[in-house]
Write a structure and sequence with these properties.
single chain; alpha+beta; Translation, Eukaryotic Peptide Chain Release Factor Subunit 1, Chain A; 2 domains; 4-stranded antiparallel β-sheet; 9 strands; about 25% helix; about 25% strand; elongated
Length: about 200
């Protein structure tokens, strides 16, 4: 499942339906504790089931409504890679699960629209920028936001600083000279030899 982007969030808000379920959960990203991630979602789905029944949905309607989220819990491959948090959106015509690059607390909300308040930090300072990393032997371009970074492959981009400058970069090397039996000379890079 992808990270939630601003454009997708706007689309979710333009699709109000009753009921609209929003589930937020922090995720463990590494180590043996990651096995608790699907258990956490399973427990939050139980809370969602209770809220939906309290709103008047029958048991079989609730089961059908929550089926896509429960299938996600059973999908072992999905849980192998996680972000900081997970949000699940479900209404009668839509099911979306997004990895989030921000901290959230466990939360289950049922309403006539999706609950997005925990996502507001995604809308602030979400400017995209580029990073050009150049070294003697390598050049890379990255596209980044405050939450993620990815390499951009540019056709015909120079592969190194030497290729851009059109000559080989040669580092200065110290030169040492010897002198006949009366003493020695020492040298530093770029300096004239001096008698020791």
């Amino acid at each position: 499942m992808p990270l939630l982007l601003r454009e997708e969030l706007k689309g979710l808000l333009e699709n109000p339906q009753d009921p609209s379920l929003s589930i937020f959960a922090p995720m463990v990203q590494a180590g043996p504790e990651t096995r608790q991630n699907p258990v956490r979602i399973k427990n939050l789905l139980r809370q969602a089931e209770e809220k939906l029944i309290d709103l008047g949905m029958r048991g079989n309607e609730v089961s059908d409504f929550l089926a896509p989220a429960r299938n996600l819990v059973k999908d072992a491959s999905y849980w192998q890679q996680q972000a900081t948090a997970l949000v699940i959106f479900r209404n009668p015509t839509l099911f979306k699960a997004y990895r989030l690059p921000l901290d959230v607390e466990d939360l289950v909300v049922v309403g006539s629209t999706f609950h997005i308040k925990p996502l507001l930090p995604l809308l602030a300072n979400d400017g995209r920028f580029f990073i050009l990393a150049v070294s003697e032997n390598e050049a890379r371009l990255y596209s980044a936001t405050r939450h993620n970074i990815s390499e951009v492959h540019v056709e015909d981009m120079p592969k190194s600083l030497a290729e851009v400058l059109k000559f080989d970069i040669i580092e200065p090397r110290p030169q040492f000279h010897s002198i006949a039996a009366g003493g020695t000379l020492t040298a530093r890079p770029g300096a004239a030899p001096t008698r020791a």
